[in-house]
Amino acid sequence: MPKEIKGIQLGQIKELSQLKIVRIFNEKWIHNLVSHPRPQRPGLGLTGYLKHLQAGRIQVFGKTEVGYLHNLKDEDRSRCLKNYFSLKLPGIIISENIKAESDWIAMAARYSTPILISELHTAPLISRLSAFLYQYFSKKIKMNGVLMDIMGQGVLITGSSGIGKSETALELVNKGYQLIADDVAEFYLDSNDDLIGRSNEIIKNLMEVRGLGIININDIFGTSAVLEEKKLNLVINLEKWDAKKKYDRLGEDTQYFKILGLELPLISLPVGPGRNLSTIIEVAVRNFLAKKSGKKTYLELNKESALQQDELSDPQAEVSK
Amino acid sequence: MIEKTQVIHNKLGLHARAAAKLSHLANMFTADIFLIYNEDKVNAKSLLGILTLAASVGNEIILQASGGDEQEALAAISDLFNRKFDEES
Lengths: 321, 89
Hints:
The complex is a heterodimer of chains A (321) and B (89). Chain A has 321 residues and is an alpha+beta fold. Chain A has 10 helices and 17 strands. Chain A has helices at 10-14, 63-71, 74-85, 102-110, 122-137, 165-174, 217-221, 277-292, 297-313, 315-320, and strands at residues 8-9, 21-25, 33-34, 59-61, 92-94, 115-118, 140-144, 146-150, 153-159, 178-181, 184-189, 195-199, 206-209, 213-216, 229-240, 255-259, 262-271. In chain A, the strands form 4 sheets. In chain A, strands 7, 8, 9, 10, 11, 12, 15, 16 and 17 form a 9-stranded mixed beta sheet that branches. In chain A, strand 5, helix 4 (102-110) and strand 6 form a beta-alpha-beta unit. Chain B has 89 residues and is an alpha+beta fold. The A-B interface holds A 1, 3, 142, 144, 161-162, 182-184, 200, 202-203, 206-208, 214 and B 16, 27, 39-43, 45-49, 51-52, 54.
């Protein structure tokens, strides 16, 4: 089940090194909650048009906002700030290390609003803040399985406990492919609606192989054997060989795995004695890539046999040979 | 499916050795067994999965089991927690 994110404390945003926060005023209210994934520039909100300012959105001030406030007469500025801060906004970030006047700070304090000062220009500040908040607020889901990069494709290998997911993944790592997460992979939807998988920080680079225990793939195989995150393209489910079940013999079935509103191609592979899973998975990915580029072997096979049928039934064809 | 709330009693919480004992025990049962903590749900048969919970002493987790031997599984696992994973005397 995807986890609902209620909000992030301003204190956590302050700690982000990419935002280059250099000063904080009204730090007492640093626990205010930002509950909206997009930052907002107040713009006309400062003139008194407050309709589209939303509580819960972090506010960004650039030169425009600050310049506008500076040019107001004292009593106008005071009224404008009062109206603005009375919205109980979670916090304000001012870009370019611009000085915050003491009357603003006092007014912000009256409505428990912290003011953060960043060294960044407004555009990079907003884009970094948005990128962070987008990922933070995006739907996340954990799935059991091994996430690997095989020939550039993000492949999640699933299957019940003890079926040999990790062992198969180890063989694939040994063949030169990359591990992203063993056992539990965490996914989030990025702004392109792609599903991005990564490992939980605690078990990053680790793999459990029964008989060997927990091993660190980064230590054993080196940094080229691990990846931080990867877009998911394909799900391969390993299952116990069931003689009664009908397996795809032609390669024409397309199954889908549904997750967070997306449909990903799914391949079910039966595990049986004498089946070299790592090779089968490798070939499954090659085949997936071939299918993606429009190659369908079973259709070509149909064409071939239809052609032969035609030749047999058509006496003219016999003659012309 | 049955559920039970379980408090973690051992000092170190669900650290590696405790997680290993827990997943080893869970693997003895055919039932599907899950641990739920902080809205995270992990398979109790997966050692690395248990580690991702980072649950420590005093925390409450929910044990969930479904399938043939779910009763026995939950009783045995709860007992392991209550015995503090046999690591403190």
